[in-house]
Amino acid sequence: GLGSAWEFVGISDAVTAANGNITLTEPAGVEQDDLLVACIAARDDEVFALPVGWTAIEQVNSAVTSCSTPQSSCVMAYCVRGASAPSFAFTRTGGDVALGRVVAFRGNLVSSPLDVSEGELVLGQLDTIPALTTTGGDELIVFMAAVSPYLFFGVQQPVAYQSTDPFLDEWVERGWASTTTGQDVGLNIVSGVKRTAGSTGAL
Question: CA 22 to CA 83: how far, in whole Å?
Fold first, then answer.
């Protein structure tokens, strides 16, 4: 579990699309009122349109398509699940390879799940994540990295994340995946819970 406010439910299998639209899948064990977070990494600057019922958290676009350059586009969005599953079809007009997964959480803060967000486009190795300042306690923080697989596999494969903030639980890696189509992309997802309101500090 992630503490009293949040429970990790599961993460879906990775889905790859060579171009165009991508249809993700729902993690096993999901129930009504669970929080679904979709994370998509892509090698292009085409903007994804969200399915009905999803709210954008961040969408950061890069025109880089070379797999040797550690810079990719990404989109993160959330949906509070209803009695039936939402659409998982994220659409775009063309584009290069895309890779996506959905991670699910259960908790008592889903009525207003988005507090703050931060998106960064970095050319090179990302040493720190800019601070987030939360407004409440027991807030779930979900981090995704969309990168070249070359960066992770050849330089720094992510294993675990630790924060120096004493009020933030240990980061838990929820899933790592990459494509093998030539112009490739990697996707890593981690999460943690910040116990008290305030700045995380640089992570």
Answer: 23
